[in-house]
Structure prediction request, 558 residues.
Amino acid sequence: MKYVVILGDGMADYPVDAFDGKTILEVADKPTIDYMAQHGEMGMVKTVQDGMKPGSDVANLSVMGYDTKKCYSGRSPLEAASIGVPLKDNDVTFRCNLVTLSDEENYEDKTMLDYSAGEITTEEAAELIKAVAKELDTDMIKFYPGISYRHLTVWEGGSTNVELTPPHDSSDKKITDHLPKGDGADTLLEMMKKSEKILREHPVNKKRVAEGKNPATSIWVWGEGTKPQLDNFEEKFGLKGSVISAVDLIKGIAKCAGMNSIDVEGATGNCDTNWEGKAQAALDAILNGSDFVYVHMEAPDEMGHQGAPEKKKFAVETIDKKVVKFIKDELEKRGIGRKYFSSVHLPTGSCRVTLKNGTPSYELASNVAYDYIPYIEPEEEYDALYFGTLAQRRDISRNTVSELLRRNYREVLLDVNVRKPYLTREILKKSIEKATIVKISREEASYLLPYTSPEHYCETMLAHFPRLHQVILTLDKDGAYVCDRQQGGFLSPKPCSKALSTVGAGDSFCAAYLFHILSGHSIPTALEAATVLSDYVVTQLGAVPPLPDELRCRILKG
Prediction:
């Protein structure tokens, strides 16, 4: 068994006013995640054990299968492991953030303006931490640069009996009640105060201010801990594990657990991260020997800390589109997970049709079978492909259609159904470009091109799309008009039955027409058979009514 865990850190949230009291996950467009939630196995887990402080450190360890009450020794030691800082048994480590504080003269009166110092770059931060280390390093206390605003302080013989507050929990608040308390608090607070004087006039900060960016005006220590002791992941679970993350905390967990920590160029832990690179790295890992791949996405958590709901929504949607969908689709193409996804039972598509003054309106059910069609490599060659636009309203089925269109067919018939908001002109044009025959109704024709007459419209379609050799324009009670690139135009007999339901009429028309074209019959013969069959179907309830034997023989014989 192989496992890919895609963890969207901080995706869950409380209802927010920006989205009318809904959560980010309620409003985000995430079709692949929704599909897997609706049709996979669901459960509820408690990732923070009773008595443990909630945080990414404890939660991620729990998700990976570790008992945090037995193995957890603090957040910063895990980050120390990531950046390669060796720890002695009596070392106490602290997370050391670069933050932006307000400019009150008294340090205790300042406000936490930005816990990330404007998402300061790693290169800028390295210069600042180097300046802090030059002034504040002692025989017992050392500073180490990390990534962006996240850095490390190690205190030999320090105390863990201290109360420290994460800087993101102090956002937009006076820091008075959030300063260090307990054993060693005076030493830590003194370092924080001294760092402000060191950083205030540093050239890096002057440049950032000139560019309109938040300067890093102070260090902020938190996340105390001691040397970690994690069981080897492979020995514990019998699985070869890999981790993909831009965050030192998660990389540190991987290294302490003996897992492979995969670095991805451009991975930042923010919305500007290399989404595609992380997804590809996960795919490569699971296909090349890893049994368990842990893909950690930090961006939703960062946007939550920043109080940026729209950016958090963007992060969730991007994870769905560029990470979850990509990995799922690529694994299915290779037959991994095919058995599960192809066996999922989904409701059949349904449509409520309302007639007003003879004009139908359509209310389509969502989350139905044709929305989630997985691609399975055909085991044999086929003469034709018949596909529609409605089957492309979800990325999953649209991808399957795209894959099927890569194969060679004698005919490719596209049935156009303009059902807003499920169809865009871009999707429609791309579909027509792959088709040899297009069927479109007179009412829907103007969605694509200006409509004047059947003859002119069909000729214009053929001129615009060189791959097409036939256009079928359905004309309701007037029948249908077919324009062939070589043979010209043909008008079908007019239907004579009174319609009880139009559901299934288009599919039956196309089935009969395509059958006769593939059988080598003439266009008029195909048109007549298609008209007769659809004319019968509209008199019946249901999309696929049983056919009388006489009618069946008539259709098949043409």
Observations:
- Residues 3-67+233-340 form a domain with the Alkaline Phosphatase, subunit A fold (CATH 3.40.720.10).
- Residues 338-344 have pLDDT under 50 and may be disordered.
